[in-house]
Design a protein that fits this description.
This protein is α+β, with helices and mostly antiparallel strands. Helices cover 22% and strands 40% of the residues. Strands 1, 2, 3, 4, 5, 6, 7, 8 and 9 form a 9-stranded antiparallel sheet that branches. The two termini are 29 Å apart.
């Protein structure tokens, strides 16, 4: 994160004096140097195990800034697009519960200029993946999005693959997944 601003309330390193109540932390900045990011958390220090709520909003991060990661894991790169990411998590009694919601907008994987030196098989591969992205795009919102619950023990929380697939299809054909935290939509 770049250009970070931190706001902290009721934070104490003195474990004997926790009379200030829950600690509240809010970080704002630019994720990967481009996307507006807000991370806000409430920490309950009087508990013996980690006990906190965390909200993360990352809006319009340039996906080209992820190209090193995308190349490492998918052996391709992104020509254009942005990522927004929203999540709310709660950790209590050694258990994680919450959700994650990535939203991809204006994604282009194949760019003839950027990919000119690639083998024709690699060009076809990127074109096919871009076709799948186009198929899963919600046309009115021009986005590919998914949402999934995240839950389980802190050491190994999990997400449901079928829920991810279901929400990808839901977003593409039935009802758009809206950007923002769920608490904002209640």
């Amino acid at each position: 994160m770049a250009d970070v601003n931190a706001e902290v309330e009721h934070f104490s390193t003195n474990l004997r004096d926790l009379s200030g109540g829950d600690a509240v932390v809010k970080l704002t900045g630019r994720f990967m140097g481009t996307g507006r990011a807000v991370v806000a958390g409430t920490f309950r220090p009087e508990k013996p195990d980690p006990d906190f709520d965390l909200g993360v909003q990352i809006v319009k991060t340039d996906m080209k800034s992820f190209n090193k990661v995308v190349r490492a894991y998918a052996d391709m790169d992104v020509a254009k697009g942005n990522l927004s990411f929203f999540s709310e998590l709660s950790i209590k009694n050694g258990h994680v519960s919450g959700y994650v919601k990535p939203i991809f907008k204006d994604v282009e994987l194949f760019d003839p200029k950027q990919d000119n030196d690639k083998a024709w098989t690699r060009k076809i591969y990127e074109s096919v993946i871009e076709g799948v992205v186009e198929l899963l795009k919600n046309q009115p919102h021009q986005q590919v999005a998914a949402e999934t619950d995240l839950s389980g023990p802190v050491a190994n929380p999990g997400a449901d693959t079928w829920q991810i697939v279901g929400t990808l299809i839901q977003n593409a054909f039935f009802r758009a997944i809206l950007p923002g935290l769920e608490k904002e939509h209640r």
